[in-house]
Amino acid sequence: MKIGFIGLGNMGAPMAANLAKAGHNVTGYDMATVTVDGVSNARTAKEAAEGADVVITMLPNGDILRAVAAQIIPVMRKGAVLLDCSTVDVESARAVASDAETAGLLPLDAPVSGGIGGAAAGTLTFMVGGSDEAYTTALPLFETMGQKSVHCGPSGNGQAAKICNNMILGVTMIATCEAFALADKLGLDRQAMFDVVSTSSGYSWSMNAYCPAPGIGPKSPADNDYIPGFAAELMLKDLRLSQQAADASDADTPLGQQATELYRRFVEDEDGAGRDFSAMLPRFEKRGRG
Ligand code: NAD
C-alpha cells in the first residue's frame, strides 16, 4: 500500500519503520527533522498525504490533529483511509471523522496501548472506531504494527475505549501504590504483600504485570529507578481526557477525578515529571496522613 505517515515521534517512527519493513511504500512527515529506516521524507503533511491509500497520524493532541487534518483532508484521494493512532479527546476524533467522511474518505480513530516497546516490536493493541469498510481496509496494517485490534464501534469509540481503560489503569496504580505504602507501615513484607495480592482479589495489571515495588514481581520500571516506561505526564494526559469526556457526557467518575488530581499534583507540583507513573509508590511511602 502507499502510506503517508504524519508524526514520526517516539511512537510514530518505529510504527512507520515496521510498515516499510513489511514492504509498504511509506512517505513520512514530521515538523522536526527525523529520519526513519525505509521511509522517504515529504516536505509537508500535504505532500505525504497526496495519492496515499492510507494516511496515518500519530500526533500529540486533539488540537494538532485537527490542524493537520484540515491540511490533508482536501488533498487526500476519495476512498482513502485516514487512520489516526494518536490519543486525543473523543470530540476531536469525532469532528475530524465527520470532516473526513464529508470529503469522501474513510476515517478511523485507533489509539494504541503497548507503548514505545510495543511500537518497536510491532505488538501494539489498537482500539478502533469507524466503519466496517474502513476497519477491514486497515486491518493488514494493524496486523503489521500490532498483535491485536478491537473494532469498538463508530467513530470516537476507539478513543472512548482507550480513555476508559487508562482511567482504570490510573486508579488501580494509585490503589496498588497506596496499599504497598500502608503495608510498609503495618510491617508487612513487600514480597508477602505481592504474593498474596497477585493471587487474590486485589490483583490487577498494575500489581501483577507492572509491580510498582522494586525487586518484586516481573521486571518493571520500578527496577530501573522509575525511568519510564509510561511517563506520569502521559498518564495525566489520558486521565484529563477521561475527565473531559466525563464532563461532556455527564458521567459520575469520582475516582477518575481524584486520580487526575493526584497525578496533576505529582507531575506539576512534586517530582513526578519525567518519572514512570508507578513512581507514585515512592511518593506515598514518604508521606503520612497529614
Ligand atoms: P512524540 O511527542 O514523541 O511524537 C509526536 C510527534 O509529532 C513529534 O515528533 C512532533 O514533532 C510531531 N508533530 C507535532 N506537531 C506536528 C505537526 N503539526 N505536523 C507534523 N508533526 C507534528 O509523542 P509519542 O510518544 O510518539 O506519542 C504520540 C501519540 O501516541 C500521543 O497522542 C500519545 O498520547 C500516544 N501514545 C503514546 C504512548 C507512549 O508510550 N509514548 C503510548 C500510547 C499512546
From TrEMBL:
- List the catalytic activities from the record: 3-hydroxy-2-methylpropanoate + NAD(+) = 2-methyl-3-oxopropanoate + NADH + H(+)
Q: Which Pfam family, any one of them, does this sequence belong to?
A: NAD_binding_11
Q: What is its EC number?
A: 1.1.1.31
- Sequence ranges assigned to domain 6-phosphogluconate dehydrogenase NADP-binding in this UniProt record: 2-153
- Pathway the protein contributes to: Amino-acid degradation; L-valine degradation
Q: What's in the keyword line of the UniProt record?
A: Branched-chain amino acid catabolism, NAD, Oxidoreductase
**SUPFAM superfamilies listed in its UniProt record:** 6-phosphogluconate dehydrogenase C-terminal domain-like (SSF48179), NAD(P)-binding Rossmann-fold domains (SSF51735)
The record's active-site residues are K162
Write down the top EC class of this protein.
oxidoreductase
According to its UniProt entry, the protein's GO biological process terms are: branched-chain amino acid catabolic process
GO MF terms here are:
3-hydroxyisobutyrate dehydrogenase activity; NAD binding; NADP binding
Q: Where is the 3-hydroxyisobutyrate dehydrogenase-like NAD-binding domain?
A: 156-281
Sorted alphabetically, which NCBIfam families does this protein's record hold? Answer: HIBADH
Family to which the UniProt record says this protein belongs: Belongs to the HIBADH-related family.
> Any idea what this protein is called?
3-hydroxyisobutyrate dehydrogenase
Supply the source organism for this entry: Marivita cryptomonadis
Tell me the gene name.
Answer: mmsB
